[in-house]
Design brief:
alpha+beta; Murine Class I Major Histocompatibility Complex, H2-DB, Chain A, domain 1; Immunoglobulin-like; 2 domains; 8-stranded antiparallel β-sheet; 6-stranded mixed β-sheet; signal; glycoprotein; MHC_class-I_related
């Protein structure tokens, strides 16, 4: 279980969209093995924020934002619930197929089979994108190529599935239709439903943190919205990338976001030079700057409140696990990735190509 959580925490929530770009994405996750987590989960995101959730324990799709609670009726959630129940059975079968393909049929360890799909829409340029891809145990399994309306199989184990799905030309036409029409239409509806939330701009709170005098200095920005942000370092007025580690953008439980950047530098070095953290948030004109000085650093040894800060951050990360566990475990490994693709259904969601891989 510990290794599984660490793997989940290590991934990103896709790429960060700009203020003019809106996204609708779904993540289906099936898990087998000895793990204290639902066998199947569905997470829906609009503009990288969770708006719906389903799992095989509750067998009920539920809203995760106030604007969704107010905007759609019981028939919508009944429909999403039925889609989730059907997808659960397909994914339960498919994870066993994947185990057989990889000669793991007798394995008692934890295995994860996932689907990620959705679309993006630039409300200024009008451009759209979409994708459908599957992953198994942190690796790419198969993905749809929108241009050729065929499937890409990166491994010998997924070739059988590619050949079967390529032959279903009618369904692959529906994949394209979902991307170019249905998904975009629902995305526009959701953006309109939640515009008071999704179109807002919230500036960040920026802090400099350090565990010990010899530890890296962390620039932590939190509470900002939208998710588009850059947390960078400057030395004597020039961009500085040496010995800098950039963290992922994570969602807070209130729908805002947080991100960190870690600078490894000796006290002598930063005391003799001007280091500063610069935070730039999409939609906010001003930069948020923290100059690296002894008085600005919050540490374990000179600030008792740092314990509270650490507790809050850890709590937020644990909350993120509940959402992110449905959000592409294989994402980092697939940055060289698949061609953008699509999915299909007659509604905002799609259980479709979760159908049998055999």
């Amino acid at each position: 279980m510990k290794g599984f959580i660490l793997l989940v925490l290590g991934i990103g929530l896709l790429h960060t969209a700009s203020a003019a770009t809106h996204s609708l994405k779904y993540f289906y996750t099936a898990v087998s093995g000895d793990i204290d987590f639902p066998e199947f989960t569905v997470v829906g995101l609009v503009d990288e924020g969770q708006f719906m959730y389903f799992d095989s324990n509750t067998k009920t799709a539920v809203p995760k934002t106030e604007w969704m609670k107010k905007s759609v009726g019981a028939d919508y959630w009944d429909r999403q619930t039925q889609i989730g129940i059907g997808a659960h059975q397909n994914f339960k079968a498919n994870i066993q197929v994947a185990k057989d393909r990889f000669n793991q049929s007798k394995s008692t360890g934890v295995h994860v089979f996932q689907k990620m799909y959705g679309c993006e829409w630039d409300d200024e340029a009008g451009a759209t994108e979409g994708l459908t891809q599957y992953g198994y145990d942190g690796e790419d399994f198969i993905a749809f190529d929108l241009k050729t309306k065929s499937w890409i199989a990166p491994t010998p184990q997924s070739l059988i599935t590619k050949l079967k799905w390529d032959s279903d030309t009618a369904y692959n036409e529906q994949e394209k239709n979902y991307l170019t029409q249905i998904c975009i239409e629902w995305l526009k509806k959701y953006v309109d439903y939640g515009k008071s939330t999704l179109m807002r701009t919230v500036p960040p709170s920026v802090s400099l943190l350090q565990k010990t005098p010899s530890s890296p200095v962390t620039c932590h920005a939190t509470g900002f919205y939208p998710s588009g942000v850059m947390v960078s370092w400057q030395k004597d007025g020039q961009d500085h990338h040496e010995d800098v580690e950039y963290g992922e953008t994570l969602q807070n439980d209130d729908g805002t976001f947080q991100k960190s950047s870690h600078l490894t530098v000796t006290p002598e070095e930063w005391k003799n030079n001007k280091y500063q953290c610069v935070v730039q948030v999409t939609g906010v004109k001003e930069d948020f700057i923290k100059v690296l000085t002894e008085s600005e650093i919050k540490t374990n040894w000179n600030d008792p409140n740092i314990v509270l800060i650490i507790v809050v951050v850890v709590a937020l990360l644990l909350l993120v696990v509940a959402v992110v566990v449905g959000v592409v475990i294989w994402k980092k490994k697939s940055k060289k990735g698949f061609v953008p693709a699509s999915t299909s259904d007659t509604d905002s969601d799609n259980s479709g190509r979760a159908a049998q891989m055999t």
